[in-house]
Specification:
The chain has 397 residues and is α/β, with parallel strands linked by helices. It is built from 17 helices and 14 strands. The strands form three sheets. An eight-stranded parallel β-sheet has the order 4-5-6-7-8-9-10-11. A four-stranded antiparallel β-sheet has the order 3-12-13-14, with no helix packed on it. It has a two-stranded antiparallel ribbon with strand order 1-2. A hairpin with a 2-residue loop joins strand 1 and strand 2. The radius of gyration is 20 Å and the shape is globular. It binds N-(iminomethyl)-L-glutamic acid and fe (iii) ion (FE). Catalyzes the hydrolytic cleavage of the carbon-nitrogen bond in imidazolone-5-propanoate to yield N-formimidoyl-L-glutamate. It is the third step in the universal histidine degradation pathway. Pathway: Amino-acid degradation; L-histidine degradation into L-glutamate; N-formimidoyl-L-glutamate from L-histidine: step 3/3. This is Imidazolonepropionase. Its EC number is 3.5.2.7.
């Protein structure tokens, strides 16, 4: 599976599957791929027998809100009563409740919690993770989150790629003046860049949060400072966020649950990857799922992610999301596998090192308790990962 760029459209059905294959690893990288028979001639220090089970690249998570304080299980009752996600936010709950908990948590507490969630992701076969800030909404707390993500990348074997999502919600003190709030956040760009605290800048373009015009200006500034840009776009209301993602040359447009047909056409003709997060539709009890089938049929490149966060998708198990992608998005197993490996890696600029088993790439590999690749989305809700290898080292078995 040595793919140079994202896999688009109908090519997402063309999965490379090798039978009786073997991989040789040196210094954390894949150095050889061939048949088991030929591998018998290699003098290896250590051998792992996959026993004929499914072996794939480690899963790549291109969209998570990994670093946060507290939890919001009390919102479950509100959800059951039919209180809308954006209404909970309007009343100071939702994202803003997590903002308060994140402000209260000290650095060590946040780091421990982050490492805990990373462990859980690793156990489920994830080897690379994008992590957004966005539960600070003030300079100090946003920096605290970004520093935690940076230290987690060093302390934990998984690779953590950081995104600045200071524009995640309007804090109450800026309710009447979101523009000034965006200025406070964009004033942090230089400091974030100089300290290598984030590679990407993201914004929540949504009713009651930031408008398309505000998002455009903010992302242009981020681009001028050398950041790659991403958007939470067309998640709940159709505002034209998909079109904006294409217009600003975003590396990914994320959610796209209510993208317009025009937006989908533009996405297909662009280099922007659609990061689809069906776990949020499921978890928020919505009947509307992203038209991922139409996106792929139109020629777009799609990735899939958990959107792991404390409010709209509370799971570290990407395998479960793969099942939702099969059942609700009607994607084929091959499309789903590309969406959680090759394309997910490209959605966070890691296509050169993650998302595929190929010579010269990192040896991030999972052996699954599964007879074939179709089995994982089919047998849902459990963890199939048997052995997780990160940088050539066994992390879990
Ligand atoms: O991707 N949409 C905005 N942000 C997150 C939810 C965050 C939260 O509810 O805490 C999302 O769905
Ligand atoms: Fe998100």
């Amino acid at each position: 599976m040595d793919k140079k760029g994202p896999v688009k459209g109908k090519d997402m059905n063309d999965l490379t599957v090798m039978e009786d294959a073997a991989v040789a690893i040196t210094n954390g990288n894949v150095v050889w791929i061939g048949s088991v028979e030929k591998a018998m001639n290699i003098q290896a220090e250590q051998t792992i027998d996959a026993e004929g089970k499914l072996v794939t690249p480690g899963l790549v998570e291109p969209h998570t809100h990994l670093v946060f304080g507290g939890s919001r299980e009390k919102e479950m009752a509100l959800k059951q009563q039919g209180v809308d996600y954006l209404d909970i936010l309007k009343q100071g709950g939702g994202i803003l409740a997590t903002v308060n908990a994140t402000k209260k948590a000290n650095y060590e507490e946040l780091l421990d919690k982050t490492l805990f969630h990373l462990d859980r992701m690793a156990m489920h076969g994830i080897t690379t993770v994008e992590a957004k800030s966005g539960y600070g909404l003030d300079r100090d707390t946003e920096l605290k989150q970004l520093k935690v993500a940076k230290e987690a990348n060093v302390k934990h074997p998984l690779d953590v790629i950081s995104t600045f999502l200071g524009a995640h919600a309007i804090p109450p003190e800026y309710r009447e003046d979101p523009e000034s709030f965006l200025d406070v956040m964009s004033d942090m760009f230089d400091e974030i860049k100089e300290n290598n605290l984030a590679e990407f800048v993201d914004i929540f373009t949504e009713t009651g949060v930031f408008t398309v015009e505000q998002s455009r200006r903010y992302l242009q500034k981020a681009k001028e400072k050398g950041f790659g840009v991403k958007l939470h776009a067309d998640e709940i209301d159709q505002l034209g966020g998909t079109e904006l993602a294409v217009e600003v040359g975003a590396i990914s447009g994320d959610h796209l649950a209510v993208a317009s047909d025009e937006g989908i056409e533009q996405l297909a003709a662009s280099n922007t990857i659609g990061v689809i997060l069906p776990g949020t539709s499921f978890y928020l009890g919505k009947d509307i799922y992203a038209k991922a089938r139409q996106m792929i049929d139109s020629g777009a490149a799609i990735a899939i992610s958990t959107d792991f966060n404390p409010g709209s998708s509370v799971t570290e198990n990407l395998q479960f999301i793969m099942s939702i992608a099969a059942l609700r998005l009607k994607l084929s197993p091959a499309e789903i596998w590309y969406a959680v490996t090759v394309n997910a890696a490209h959605a966070i600029s890691r296509g050169h090192e993650a998302g595929s088993i190929a010579t010269g790439r990192k040896a991030d590999i999972v052996i699954w308790d599964a007879p074939n690749y179709m089995y994982i989305p089919y047998h849902y809700g459990v963890n199939h990962a048997k052995t997780v290898i990160k940088n050539g080292e066994v992390l879990y078995e």
